[in-house]
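Title: Comparing notes on inverse folding

I've been comparing how different people in this forum approach sequence design from structure. To keep things fair, I'm posting one structure and asking everyone to reply with a full sequence. Here's the target:
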């Protein structure tokens, strides 16, 4: 188990015991020593609060026995657990093994432009392709080559081309040019119909595969 997974498991255990206890604390008898040691680490990160002498005295009175150690999750720990339970996983997903999807590797500036594009979905007349926002959120970064990895359908790739075309029209052509060069997909407004869709305005060229550089 990785460190962050271990930390989340301890936070989860503390939250479960907090709900079961009326006072909101997890006591010394409710966690194994290794977990108590992990709690001490999380306290240094601001994710957990350890009971002070006054708190322990009150807990001892409630429990009818000496309480020498108690801990509870801080608001930062609660939010860390909430985020950790919902965060995209970098592990293999069905999208990676779907033959209809292609691995696309984007440089940071392309990914930044794509995030703006999917973030504007509600205000665009030609919105991002279905599922593209989810792929952006689930994307993982290969820090060795500084590339964001996404697994996209042809429609989603054409939608990316449209987003990068918008980025090109408002300042920088480098991101769209790189996408054309590496994947052969470019948005062409001249091919769009009177009731435009991204797929109707995208052209696939002969370029294919991912070239880094």
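Reply #1:
Here's my take.
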């Amino acid at each position: 188990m990785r460190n962050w997974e271990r930390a989340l498991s301890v936070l989860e255990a503390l939250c479960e015991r907090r709900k079961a206890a009326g006072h909101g604390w997890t006591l010394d008898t409710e966690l194994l020593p290794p977990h108590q040691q992990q709690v001490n680490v999380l306290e240094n990160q601001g994710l957990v609060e350890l009971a002070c002498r006054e708190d322990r005295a009150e807990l001892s009175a409630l429990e009818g026995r000496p309480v020498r150690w108690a801990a509870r999750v801080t608001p930062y720990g609660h939010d860390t657990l909430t985020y950790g339970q919902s965060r995209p996983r970098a592990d293999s997903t069905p999208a990676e093994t779907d033959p209809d999807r292609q691995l696309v590797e984007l440089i940071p500036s392309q990914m930044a432009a794509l995030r703006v594009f999917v973030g504007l979905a509600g205000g665009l007349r030609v919105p991002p392709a279905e599922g593209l926002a989810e792929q952006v959120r689930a994307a993982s970064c290969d820090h060795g080559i500084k590339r964001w990895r996404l697994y996209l359908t042809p429609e989603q790739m054409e939608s990316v081309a449209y987003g990068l075309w918008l980025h090109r029209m408002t300042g920088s052509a480098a991101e769209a040019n790189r996408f054309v060069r590496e994947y052969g997909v470019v948005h062409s407004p001249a091919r769009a119909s009177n009731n435009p869709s991204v797929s109707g305005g995208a052209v696939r060229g002969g370029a294919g595969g991912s070239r880094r550089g």
